[in-house]
Amino acid sequence: MAAPFTAEQAGQLLDFSQKLDISLLDAVVNCFYSNVGPQHQLSQQVLTQFKENPEAWTRVDSILEFSSNQETKYFALQILETLIRTRWKALPREQCDGIKKYIVGLVIKLATDSTAQEKVFLAKLNIILVQIVKQEWPRNWPSFISDIVGASKSSESLCTNNMAVLKLLSEEVFDFSSGQMTQVKAKHLKDSMCSEFSQIFQLCSFVLDNSQSISLVGATLETLLRFLNWIPLGYIFETKVISSLIYKFLNVPAFRNVTLKCLTEIAGIQANDQYGEQFVVMFTLVMNQLKQMLPLSTNIREAYKNGQDDEQNFIQNLALFLCTFLKEHAMLIEQKPELQNNLLEALHYLVLVSEVEEKEIFKICLEYWNALAADLYRENPFSTSHSPLMLSQQSMPPRRQLYLPVLSKVRLVMISRMAKPEEVLVVENEQGEVVREFMKDTDAINMYKSMRETLVYLTHLDYADTEHIMTEKLYKQVDGTEWSWKNLNTLCWAIGSISGAMHEEDEKRFLVTVIKCLLILVVPGLKHQELLGLCEQKRGKDNKAIIASNIMYIVGQYPRFLRAHWKFLKTVVNKLFEFMHET
After folding, report:
1. Which of 526, 518, 540, 407 lies closest to 464, judged by CA?
2. Which of 332, 341, 346 is nearest to 277 (CA)?
3. What's the DSSP call for residue 526?
4. Which residues have C-beta within 8 Å of that of residue 110, sequence separation ≥ 6?
5. 398-439 confidence digits (pLDDT tens)
6. I want to staple 207 with a disulfide (CB 3.0 to 4.6 A). Which of 3, 142, 220, 557 is the partner?
C-alpha cells in the first residue's frame, strides 16, 4: 500500500522553484499504480500536471539517479521522450548535447553492468537514444555510427545492447518512418544508413565469425534480420553471409528460427537476373541441411502437436521460407534437371506442413498452393472438347508433369481440410453438439473462398484424381473407417466447392454416387450394389441432421444437374422430408 499524502504535499511537486522531493514523487507514483479512490485521482492529477510542465524535463536526471522506484523512472523517461519528439529543435544546442551525453553515458553504464530488472529499463533507454539519434544524426552527430561500432568492441555486453539499438534504428527508419517523419527526413536517414553500413556490416561479420556468446550472436542475427530488406544486395550475395547462416547457425537450436527468418528475407528479394545462381546455391544448401535436421519421414503434424514453442515456431518459419522461395524463384530450380529432386522434396515438406492443425500455418501454405495451381492452369488450360482424361503424359506440359505427384497430395489436403462455406448454418460446437450458427465466421468464409478457388484449379488440372480422392473418402465415411461429423462436413463442403469444374456427364455420374452414399448413411434399407457390405446405418437425430444438411448443401451447389434431373431432385427432396418428419 502506498504511503498516504495530502493534496498540499503533492502540490509541492509542481513548484519547480524548489528542490524536487524524490521520495514524495515515489509515493505519488506508487499511489497512482496501486490505489483507487480519491488518493488515486489526486495522484493522477498531480502527475499529469507535472508531466505537462515545460520545465519537467529538467528534473529527469535527478529522478533517474535518486529514485528507488522503477515506475518513477519510467515516468521520467516518458517526460524525456515527449520532449525529444515535440520540442527538441527548440532547445539550445548545449542542452541538446547535455541530454545526449547523459543518455549515452547511462546506456553504457547499464549495458555494461545491469541486473535483470534493469534490462527492461535499459530497453526503454534504448528507445530514448534512438529518438535522439533520429533528431541529431547525421547533421549534429556525424560520428554516431563509428561511435557505436567503436564502443561495441569494448565489451560483449555493450556490443549486445548496441545491436539492439541498431535494430531499433533500422526499424524506426525503414519500417515505421511513414507518418512519423517527413519523406525528406526519412530519405536522408535511409541514405545515411546505406552509406555508412559498411562499418555496421563489418561489426556484424566479426561477431558472427568470432563470438561464443549466445546472447550476442542472437542479438546480432536479430539485427541482421532487420537490415536484410534494405541493405545493398552486394552485402548479401557477394559475401559469405548466406553460407555462414546456413552452415554455422541454421542447425543450432538456439539460432535456427532467427536464421530461417533471415533466409526467408533473402528469399523474398527479387533479383533473379543478377543473382540467380546464388539463389540456386542457397536453396540447395538449405535443403541439404534441412534433410539432416528434419528427415523427410518425419510426421510434421504430430511433431508440431507435441512440440515446444520454439519447435512450433520453426515449422511456421519453415513454411514461410519454402513458400517465399518457391513463389519467387521456383523457375530457377525447375530449369535445372539435376535439382528437380530437391524441388520435389521441398514441396513434400510443404505438403507435410500443410497438414499441421494450425490455421495460421495453413494460410501460409494455402497462399502458395493457390498461386501454383493458378499458374499451372493458366499456363495451359484445357481448351479442347475432349476429356482431360484423354490427355496423355506425353502431351502434358513439362511443368505439370513435374508437379503431378505433388498436386495429388495437395488435393487430398484441400479436400480433408475444406473450410466451412458461408451458407452452411448447422455446425458442431465446442461441446460436440449440433447447433445452428447465428454469427458469421468471416475468417472461415475467406479461407473457404481461397480453398475453393485452389481446389477448382486443381480439379481443372486433373479432375479424375479429384473425383477418385473424393469417392474414396466417401466410401470410408460409409464403411465407418473415417466417420465423424467433422470429416463428413469437410468432404461435403469440398464436393460442393468444385461445382462446374467437371464436364456435365462426369458431373452427373459423380453426383449420383455421392448422393447415394449419403442416403445410405441416413435412410434405412437403401443400398447400392457398389457399397454392399459397407453400409452402416447412422442412427440418432444429430447424425441424421448433419447428413441431411450435407445432402441439401451439395444438391444446392449443383443447379445444372438439378435442372436436368427433376426426377432425382424429387427423390432427394422426398427422402429429406421423410427424415424431417421422423421423431
Report:
1. 407
2. 332
3. -
4. 118, 121, 122, 125
5. 899 999 999 999 999 999 999 989 877 666 666 767 676 666
6. 220
